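Hello, quick one for you while I still have it in my head. My current little project is about how a certain protein chain folds up. You're getting the sequence in one-letter code plus the fold written as tokens. Would you mind checking whether the tokens look sensible for this chain? Here's the protein in full, and shout if anything looks odd to you:
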Amino acid sequence: MSPTTLVERGSSSRIAERTRGQKHGPVTRLMSPSDFGRLLKPFVFLDLVDNQGTPFTGFGLHPHSGIATVTYIAEGSVRYEDTNGATGLLPAGGIEWMRAGGGVWHGGGLGEPGRTRGFQLWIALPPERELGPSASICRLKLCPTMDPRAC
């Protein structure tokens, strides 16, 4: 599978970017500021998560600041925790918004055994919010299955 993104500038130019991304364990980074991300600001990174059923211990607590992340789980589940006190299991169909603001530590990994698939989009916060308070908001079961007709 080769993801394709199109950006049109006026009527005379068209940019197509194709990437297989850079893989690190179950995470494939499809977009970063050094490539297509520079054209899609305020979006910083786009990560595809797919463990293909292989166990993965996860990422320990690590810091973020000045950004927000949107995580959507299409299949399986992930566990999460952060220094705001948010902790739990994000199931398939769930979405989490984490605003790092002036700083937050967070971590997590795969939840229940089996395949887990989803994505995480990193967003640069506007200057007036970069150093603001951090927050985590989880919405469970926004979309009950991977079937788009069920959403």
